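Query form — protein NIPSNAP domain-containing protein

QUESTION: What is the three-dimensional structure of this chain?
INPUT:
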Amino acid sequence: MAAVSSSVRLGGQIWFRGSVQQASRRFSENSDKGWFRSLFVHKVDARKDAHSNLLSKRETSNLYKIQFHNIKPECMEAYNSLEAEVQNRLHQDQDYPCEVVGSWNTWYGEQDQAVHLWRYKGGYPALTECLEKLNNNKEYLEFRKERAKMLISRRNQLLLEFSFWNEPLPRPGPNIYEMRTYQLKPGTMIEWGNHWARAIKYRQENSEAVGGFFSQIGDLYVVHHLWAYESLESREETRNSAWLKEGWDSNVYYTVPLIRSMESRIMIPTKSSPLQ
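ANSWER: The structure tokens for NIPSNAP domain-containing protein are given below.
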């Protein structure tokens, strides 16, 4: 069969002087190799080292714990009051090397849920010291018994913060907070970090970037991005404006294939939360 020498449009390009069969074959080969070429669009750090050493703020040695508490609906008010009292006591006691970064109730997402983010200055030694002291604190043990009566379930994770994100610091309100949680494919954390190290600049104009973390213990290959907005309307406007900036679309394009699942929570800070 004779080759057809007419022009053919494939993938947004015009192909000349080749057969339709050749063009189709070349297009298929390019599609098959697309994943391979994408590795070189943004260079991935090839050093052999733990992800925590490559991605975290090693100089600060901060360790974070995030707690998710599912609460009996009728106990929400009492739970918030009791939790605030204990958090305030720990803040005031300098013997405990921990502090609450933020406390929220989920507004949209899983209902009747409280989310707490703690910081341990000094890393794992600070966490160990704090747990040992709390386990010998009779008032705290009584608090845990009382709190347990209000809970349906609870879970936690230990986290490190990405080196290229803002450190979460107290801020005035009122704000709503969005926690976007990504379950990544194993082996993709370095690639994720490299893309977001470039992309975070597109999301800092309105000071909406609060903190970015990745899990160390608990569910692994989990990333939490924490954002602050004045309202749901400002959230929509801020997110839409990012798409007008050259480069943001590339970040989305190259990070979406790294994700296994994702979740968004809209959260309201509790009265005692340093992040308002």
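ADDITIONAL NOTE: Confidence is low (pLDDT under 50) at residues 1-44.
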